[in-house]
Amino acid sequence: MEVEDRQQMINLLTGVQSSKKSYYNELKKTVIELKKKNMQLEIINDVTKSFNVDMSIDEMLKNVFDKLQTIFPIERISLSMYENEKLILTNVYPPPSLYFPIGFELSKEHSLYWKAVESLEKI
Asked: Mean pLDDT throughout 40-54?
């Protein structure tokens, strides 16, 4: 038996090769995840930088929607105002995706909007 064969058998028996493969596979997955997260952060940073005092709320929503749609599977984006313990729909983009009219008071029952407001967590 040659020295190379013997070393290969030792590596196989001790799992060195499979450990290396597992490590590199995990490392590749981690690098891919980090690249994805970095891209998401860059886009979110772009969104915040692109806000302009001269822009209307609808223009800002369009801008946010266009950029976030590249990283999240979203169909619409909306803005609601919390006033006098009521949640009122104020803006929606794109306009054809309007389910409720502007000014609609969102009910507390079974509402993701209210759940987000009350828990202060993303949903």
From this structure: 81
